[in-house]
Amino acid sequence: MIPSNTICVSEEGPANALALNKDATQVVIAGRNVFKVFSIEENDFTEVCNLRVGKNLNLNFSSIDVAWSTIEENTLATAATNGAVVVWNLGRSGRSKQEHVFSDHKRTVNKVSFHLTEPALLISGSQDGMMKCFDLRMKEVARTFISNTESIRDVQFSPHQAHTFAAVSENGNVQLWDVRRHERCLQQFTAHSGPVFACDWHSEMPWLATASRDKTIKVWDIHAKPNLEHTIYTIASVGHVKWRPQKKYQVASCALVLDCAVHVWDVRRPHVPLATFAEHRDVTTAIAWQNDPNTFLSTSRDCSLYRHRFSEAAHPVLWANPHGVCVSARGDVTHAAPDCPLPALHTNPASDRYVPGLGRKQPTAGSLRPQAQAALERLFPGGAASILTRYSGEGRPPCCVVACAKEYKMRGLPTHELAEHNAKVARAYNRHMVGHVWEVVRCVYGRPPPREPPEREPPPPPPAHTNSNAVEEEPLEEVEQWAETQFHNSGVLGMPTLSIYIPPHKYKIRHDATGACGPEGSGWVSAASAHYVDVETADWTLPEEAFPLRAPPPAHQPSILDTTHGRTAAGGASPGGSSSPGSGSSGSNGSACTAPPNLEQTSSAYPGAATLCRAQPEEGESGPLWVVHEALRPHVEPAPLLALALRHHADLGDVQTAALVMIVLHEHRSDLFPYIDEGLQEHWLLGYIEFLQKHKLWNVATEVVRCAWLSSVWSLSQQSSSVTVCCGRCGRRARPRAMCDRCLPHPDLCAVCRQVVRGLYAWCQGCSHGGHLEHMRQWMEKHQLCPAGCGHHCQLG
Fold it and tell me: Which of 240, 214, 295, 231 lies closest to 266, judged by CA?
């Protein structure tokens, strides 16, 4: 949206420069593809003449700069890209207005400028580092000025001294020349740290404004010796600068890149512009004030020519926050407030304005009434003064991060004990998330001792067998009795001893022969008493359904019975407990009972599986069941999860937790290396060390360096060890192996005898006083304070 009082005209191509005639009623614009003269009307521009006409449109018509004589109404001059300086006469009859071409420069001409009082003098600055003064009456070069620099970017005649002109170059220098003397310049000084692109003389004061690539505009007082008066800081390289007429402290500028707006600055408030004009959609290439300080013209690479009125300006200071707050690392708060805040100004109702192509909101243009705008210009410089207030953090509780750093432990204990201690410290200072991370480290990398089952009484030894006819045989493979009430016998460690079945009519014979006692009339005998079996009298035929069937194991879990014991037999065991031929130890009858699984072997073969133990039961009762190891659970890899947690804390700014967890892990640290690269580890350690040194925790920082596993970090202990020497007389820091610059004429005196020390010299590192070695020894044997009278408790090593 273009303000109502701003007029615009489109061009055939982007213009590089513009110039006004002496009455400011006409404007000429020049570029590579455009060269026109417009008449400035009240509400629009009217084209007067198109100078880019003719059959031979060569490089003389492609202009970089244009100047209009301040005395002659029809005389123009352009700087061409081919190094030519072309003079144009608008009063010449015919279509071609070209008067004369000067081809004396060897490279591109950057600037042309007419003398303010001599209409026949024209000066030019070129890329070849030379300036040439042309006499238009003689149509020849009057003088050549050699700058001994890379290139000249701008030349301007002084309005205060008729024979003086200023030239700026790309090496950052400013030269002042007398047009009558071409041998050497009058003055030369370095104005900027980068190339200087433009300069402009103040109409009332002997000030010269310079614009540079270093994003600054500097105002120099050239009355005697060049003196820097003001510096304006911008956001981009400054390409052009022009003083505002009738305003002593205000100057307009436009950027060379990035910024498309034209800013008007008050040199007394250099950080924020007084007014901004953001109508252009591309970089502004030239600006020129009319005789009225409230109107100026500008052209841009967007092929447009604008006339701006100051009443349509936007004022960023009205939207800027005049207050600022900052918090230091030690908890101090600093508040800046304006000393003289701007009063409430009356504004016109206007909507927010958006610049096409930028997509960002701009300050509303033309929002101030004329009276309010005048008040703003009057009060604007005073608004730069501010009051700075500091609120100290002394007396408040210390920072929890610093307090934790003092109490954390990094070495000397196992990983899980260090993590447990650090978790308690973190929770003591209400850092519960950090404490949770330490608890995870303790649980993952800790090895707590397993719970042992209660002690059990050993089972009674088996009775002695006196039957000489009994044949000793190996224990048979037996099948567990899985009925709930069938465990009547207990073995070693309280585990159930399994039983075998003997028919009743055979059991009586066995009972009489062996003298073993058992349940009356029962066919089930303890396996512990079945070591001696009468093979001839025993009937090994098993009745049908002698054993209750066992339910098959779940489909998703392997059968512990099959894997631990059933595979050991020749034919294996069936889930129902039936035996396979040839599985017995004797191998005589081809059938045998299946033995119970070895629970100890099962627990070792399956890590994490539950080991069950039954206590020694009373007769006719079942013993309690004890869980020795943890139940079987899925395996989870903790390293990637822990690495993700450390990255999260580091992203939140907590490098303390990330660095210390890596240190405390010790030998487990390598588990995180695939997920945390070495560069990030070094960044965490160096960041934590810098934090500790910032808070003067030197011992803790040294401990971190000592525990570091990266060579780039622990090598700091070999690089940062230094001893600072200060003068014992004035306390000033002295250079290594050199005397104090301030006390150089005075030699070092002994603090005891006050004589010049020659030979061995002993000095205290605390107060820097010393003297003869023998004198210091004798003094310290009788006294504790320094002999110089400073009150320090000196110690002689």
Answer: 231
Q: Which of 632, 629, 630, 633 is nearest to 452 (CA)?
A: 629
What tokens were used for 436? 């949770």
SS3 388: strand
Instruction: For the chain, give the mean pLDDT.
Output: 74
How does DSSP classify residue 464?
A: P
Distances (CA, A) of 420 to 125, 226, 324, 411: 76, 69, 43, 13
CB contact at 8 A, 757 and 776: no
CB 220 within 8 A of CB 228: yes
Q: What pLDDT does 456 receive?
A: 54
Asked if 143 and 187 touch (Cβ cutoff 8 Å), the reply is no
Best CA proximity match to 273, nearest among 249, 246, 294, 300: 249
- The answer to whether 339 touches 385, Cβ cutoff 8 Å, is yes
Q: Is 357 exposed, middle or buried (0-12, 13-18, 19+ CB in 10 A)?
A: exposed
Q: Is the Cβ–Cβ distance between 459 and 491 less than 8 Å?
A: yes
Which secondary structure element, helix H or strand E, spans residue 775, and what is its range? Answer: helix 773-782
CA 327 to chain centre: 18
Where do runs of H (alpha helix) occur along 577-669? 599-605, 638-651, 655-664
Residue 248 has pLDDT above 50, yes or no: yes
Contact by Cβ (8 Å): 592, 477: yes
Structure tokens at 373: 């705008």
Q: Which of 5, 94, 91, 80 is nearest to 44 (CA)?
A: 5
Q: Per-residue pLDDT tens for 750-778? A: 888 888 887 777 878 777 788 888 888 88
Whether 314 and 275 have beta carbons less than 8 Å apart is answered as yes
C-alpha distance from residue 162 to each of 156, 179, 387, 643 (Å): 11, 9, 46, 75
Q: How far apart are CA 485 and CA 617, in angstroms?
A: 12
Integer Cα distance of 368 and 90 in angstroms: 41
Cβ proximity of 479 and 542 under 8 Å = no
Length reported for the chain: 797
For residues 32 and 13, what is the distance between their CA atoms, to the nearest angstrom?
A: 8
Q: Is 419 exposed, middle or buried (0-12, 13-18, 19+ CB in 10 A)?
A: buried
Contacts of 653 by beta carbon, 8 Å cutoff, 6+ apart:
none
Residue 596 is predicted with a pLDDT of 45
Nearest by Cα to 400 from 431, 371, 355, 441: 431
More confident residue, 447 or 658: 658
| DSSP letters spanning 733-770 | B--TTS--STTTTSPPB-TTT-SB--S-EEE-TTT--E
Burial class (CB in 10 A: 0-12, 13-18, 19+), 732: exposed
Q: Which of 769, 731, 777 minimizes the C-alpha distance to 750?
A: 769
Q: What are the beta bridge partners of residue 38?
A: 27, 47
Cβ atoms of 154 and 199 within 8 Å: the answer is yes
Q: How many CB atoms lie within 10 A of CB 431?
A: 21
Backbone torsions φ then ψ of 406, nearest 5 degrees? -75, -25
Place of tokens 């600068």: 241
Confirm if 164 and 141 have CB atoms less than 8 A apart: no
163-177 as b/e: b if 16+ CB within 10 A: ebbbbbbbbbbbbbb
The residues, any chain, with a CB within 8 Å of residue 768's CB and separated by 6 or more, are: 725, 726, 727, 728, 731
